[in-house]
Amino acid sequence: MKKVISVLWQESRQTGRFSLEVLAANGVEVMLATDEEYTPTPAISHAILAYNRGRKRGLADGIVITPSHNPPGDGGFKYNPSNGGPSGTGVTGWIEGKANEFLGGGLKSVKRVAYETALRAATTQRHDYLNAYVADLGSVLDMDLIRDSKISLGVDPLGGAGVHYWGPIAERYSLNLTVVNDEVDPTFRFMTRDWDGQIRMDPSSPYAMQRLIGLKDRFQVAFACDTDHDRHGIVTRKGGLMSPNHYLSAAIFYLFQHRPNWRRDAAVGKTLVSSQMIDRVAAKLDRKLCEVPVGFKWFVDGLLEGSFGFAGEESAGAAFVRHDGTVWTTEKDGILLALLAGEITARMERDPAEIYFDLTNELGTPVYDRVEAPATAREKEFLKNLSPEQVRQTELAGEKIKSILTRAPCNNAPIGGLKVIAENGWFAARPSGTEDIYKIYAESFLGVDHLRRIVEQAKATVSEAITAAPVEQDVNLGPRGRCQ
Questions:
Q1: Residues in contact with 29: Cβ distance below 8 Å, sequence separation at least 6, in sequence order
Q2: pLDDT by residue (tens digit) across 236-250?
Q3: Are 17 and 24 in contact (CB under 8 A)?
Q4: How large is the C-alpha radius of gyration of the chain?
Q5: Cβ contacts of residue 107 below 8 Å, gap of 6+?
Q6: For residue 477, is it within any domain?
Q7: Which residues 6+ apart lie within 8 Å of 97 measured at CB?
Q8: Catalytic site residues?
């Protein structure tokens, strides 16, 4: 029988209780956090992998209940299979189907026991996720170096699941680390509002990170993580809040030169919409680059095998392997990437922003943007299934188009849209999975004006393609109140 690792935490408390009541009623072994502690996503992945190491049967999997970097009301129920990473589309599709089936039946077939009964059930156990994770950090980071350097570090957990992890990390490794805000509030009213007035715990947003950015001169490096602590935001004195693409580039450049026990063929993993600066850094390091569709699930196998040394995506999520080249987590780990900024600064005596600036002097200075445009369900479905032949242009903002992709170069998986690439710029367009919009990602190494031209051409290209779409009945998204 599987052990399900479930996280129950503040704004998701009721959902967590209901989940335990159902799991216990169905005889599923559950490992709750000691003392009802909040548990970050990477700690769940770490625990799944640790439990399953060497096992062939009775494997652990996991549940994470969190709004992630979305508004507090947009809670999510995430399932991690026994590989510790995000579940694939086949698994999530099955879960959605079963959920809709239960909802359609008014939940009458769902077995459930009282919460107190579930807590006392023989199948409900306790596990110290916090100390297991914290004690193992030395296998993936040079914690002694960070300690001995005495660099000043500041962290704002943004009221997230890792809020109580940072104190034990500082204490165990004797770090000069200050938690600037340990408030936990399910409404997140302490947050500054994002660009659209919404409250989001997005550590890469300059709007959401206003408070920490204001403290940048107090610390050599400061950082924050989103609600489930799988995403990171890095603030330095020289660079302020770093763009996720900039930090990923600097982190890759550093790690592949300071991890001598990683496999020589360990690749750099990136999503298709991440900066092409990463491609140039990988080439400079003479490392294989593996470009996959959007979604961290595409990195799981490579991290497990050690064939990826590092895997990251433009939305400020990344992970890398241990010093010995074996897997650390198969989920994004905001804590790991935050502390890495401290290691980089300690060893190089320069912060990650300064390292990135040096890379731009040698490899070029990219400018990057992401824009959104409205799209109907039919248009989104058509965009998702575009073929290269449907793009008629031969140039992109004055440069010859080198390639048009609808499948990822690394694994040939459909990207759910398309990517158009020229020598010094590119754009990618893909439909949103949750809203009636499509997103355009674009980058130029020739400046802001060139980037604007790429974005405008991208909009025109997509508009022309979807205008030519055959008129069909809109995709049935299902009735309101059901999982999609």
A1: 1, 2, 3, 4, 123, 124, 125
A2: 998 999 999 999 999
A3: no
A4: 23
A5: none
A6: no
A7: none
A8: 68
Cβ-based neighbours of 351, under 8 Å, separated by 6 or more: 220, 221, 236, 237, 238, 239, 341, 344, 345
In a domain, 276, yes or no: no
* Domain around 52: 3-130
Residue 34 domain-assigned?
A: yes
Q: Is 229 within the bounds of a domain? A: no
Q: What is the pLDDT of residues 294-346, one digit of tens each?
A: 999 999 999 999 999 999 999 999 999 999 999 999 999 999 999 999 999 99
User: Which pLDDT tens digit goes with each residue over 169-214?
Assistant: 999 999 999 999 888 877 777 777 777 777 777 788 888 888 888 8
Helix (H) or strand (E) holding 147: helix 143-149
Task: Tell me which residue has tokens 């970097």.
Answer: 69
Mean pLDDT of the 26-45 span: 92
d(CA 397, CA 452): 9
Residue 208 has what pLDDT? 81
d(CA 199, CA 82): 33
Bridge partners of 438, per DSSP, are 373, 431
Angle formed at CA 186 by CA 44 and CA 37, multiple of 5 degrees: 35
